[in-house]
Structures are given as structure tokens and as C-alpha cells.
């Protein structure tokens, strides 16, 4: 029996034809053998995190996301950069996944972040912020599982070297083994 590694992709752009959405789709479609990349849908339906809403009757969108990530082996954020940081939709998803404190769905999950922006920096601040936030929320940010790419001078979805670097992040999440205690 073959086991599969399940990676949930959180896309930080809500635009239907966004470059980062297309990157997530390419990583899903080109996942290595034994790896399934599933894109979390419905992030636009998550209410802003509010502890008053996070009680016995958690909003459906939040419960669905928590279940999806809770059943996954790893999490990959695929995000652009908005105003020098991660988009609010990604931050909000991480907030919902971090609760209940200490036992949220993201706790202990290997985490990586990739993406591209049409800036010289390629989204590195957003990616650093997403990695930091997920780490504080309890995820394990995997060394080498962060890749920022400028989309100014390269077609991210056509450049073989860029695609290989993005795919390497997926492979590193799939191969991650936590250190023995």
C-alpha cells in the first residue's frame, strides 16, 4: 500500500487569474509521485478572526479550513505581496488555523511559502511574514521551503529553473521529518 503526502496550499490572492493562483495550480498538477497538493478553496468566505465567533458554533468556512489542514501532512502558502507584507486573506487564514491556542490545525505542520510578484523583491517580505506568523502559530517552517520570485523579467510559469525551485519546495515539505526528541 502506497501512502500519499497531502499538502494544503493557501493562496494569498483572491483574484481568479492571479499569478500565484496559477503557481498553486501548476504545483498541484505537477506534484511529485506520492504527493497530493490540494488548494484550499473558500478563503474569501472566512470572516475576520474574532474570538467571539470561535466558540461552539465556529463559522462553516473556518471549520472546513481547519478540517482540511488538520488532515493534511503539510501546508504551503502561495502568495503575492501587498504593501510589503502578506495579504490579509492569508493572515486571516493563519489566524483561524492557529486556534484554539496551542492545538490549532496548523500546530506541528511543516510549512513553506512560495510566490511571485512583479517587483524586484519577488514578495520576500510577505513570505518572511507568512513564515514568521505560521511559526508563531505553531507550524514548523521547513528550512529551504521559502522561495520568492520576481516576475519582472521572467515568465514564472514557463521558466524551467524557476519551476524547479518551486517544485523543490513542495518536495522538501513532502520529505520533511521532524527531529527526534
Q: Explain this structure to me?
A:
By secondary structure, the protein is α/β, with parallel strands linked by helices. It has one domain (5-175): Flavodoxin domain (Rossmann fold, 3-Layer(aba) Sandwich), CATH 3.40.50.360. The protein is built from five helices and five strands; from the N terminus they run βαβαβαβαβα. The chain has helices at 19-29, 60-70, 88-97, 124-136, 160-175, and strands at 5-11, 35-39, 74-78, 110-117, 140-150. The protein has a five-stranded parallel beta sheet with strand order 2-1-3-4-5, with helices on both faces. β4 (110-117), α4 (124-136) and β5 form a beta-alpha-beta unit. The model has no long low-confidence stretch (mean pLDDT 94).
Q: Keyphrases for this structure?
A:
181 residues, alpha/beta, Rossmann fold, five-stranded parallel sheet, 5 helices, 34% helix
Short description:
The protein has 181 residues and is of the alpha/beta class. The protein has helices at residues 19-29, 60-70, 88-97, 124-136, 160-175, and strands at residues 5-11, 35-39, 74-78, 110-117, 140-150.
As a whole number of angstroms, the C-alpha radius of gyration is 15 Å
* Helix-strand string: EHEHEHEHEH
Residue windows where pLDDT falls under 50 for at least 5 positions: none
List the domain count as a whole number. Answer: 1
> What fold name stands as the CATH topology?
Rossmann fold
Question: What is the structural class?
Answer: alpha/beta
Helix content: 25-40%
- Tally the helices: what do you get? 5
The largest sheet is: 5 strands, parallel
